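Input chain follows. Return C-alpha cells only.
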Amino acid sequence: MSEAVLVELHKGYRVIQINRPDRLNALDRATHVVLMEKLLEAEADETCRAIILTGTGRGFCAGADLAGRNQVPEEPRSKDAGSSIEETWNPLARKLAVMRMPVIAAVNGIAAGAGSSIALGCDITIAARSAYFLQAFTRIGLVPDCGGTWFLPNLVGPARARGMVMLAEPLPAEKALEWGLIWNVFDDDKLMQEAHKMAAKLASMPTKAILMSRRAIAAASAGNSLNEQLDLERDLQAMASRTEDHKEGVTAFLEKRPAQFKGR
C-alpha cells in the first residue's frame, strides 16, 4: 500500500503531496492524521521555511472521502457531521492559518468541497490551467466547511460566494484568477516548476516579517477598523524591527549587497 502523504525535502522548503490519486486525493480520517503529522514535522524542522502543498494525479483534493467514511466502523452514517469536522477539517484549517512558514497551494487538478477550502486557506494559491474549484456541498445537502464560508466572501465578495456555493458549479482556474480567488495560473506542465521557484524564493526571505504580514492581513480581513489596524501595524512593526533579518536587510542595503536572511 502506497503512502497517503508524500514528502520531498529541498533546500529551505518541503513539498507535501496528498497521494490518493484513485480517490482524487479525497481525505479519509487516516489521511487527515498523516497530513497533520507531516505539517507538524515541517514546523519542527528549523531549516524548513516554506511548504508546497499539492496532490498526485488529476486532483489536488476532492474534499472528504465519503465512501471511505462509510467503511469505517467507528464512523457510521448517523455520526454527527459537526463532531467529525471538529476532529478533522477544523484542526487542519486552523493549522494552515498559523504555520510557522508560508504555505503555497499548487492546485494541480480538481479542488472540490473542503479541498477547495484547503487550497484557499494557504498563503499563496496557484493553479494549473486545467484545474478548477468546486463548492460541491449543496450537491449532497451540506454547507461549506474547513473555512470555506470565510475564505470565499473575503476573497471574491458575498455575491460571487453565494453563486459558487448555491449553484455548486465548477469555477475554472482562469476565472478564479480573474475573480481574485487565487494568485496565478500556469500551464499544467509548468505548475510545479513555478511552485518550486516560489518556494525557494520564500525560503530565502525574512520569514518572521512574512508571518507578521500574514497576521496583519488576516486581522484586516476579519473586520479590524482603520484605527485597530494602525495599532496592529505599529505593534508588529516594532516586533519586526527587532529581528535579526531586519538588521541584516538594513546592513545589506547600506553595503549594496544581496541580503542573506536566516528567518530569525
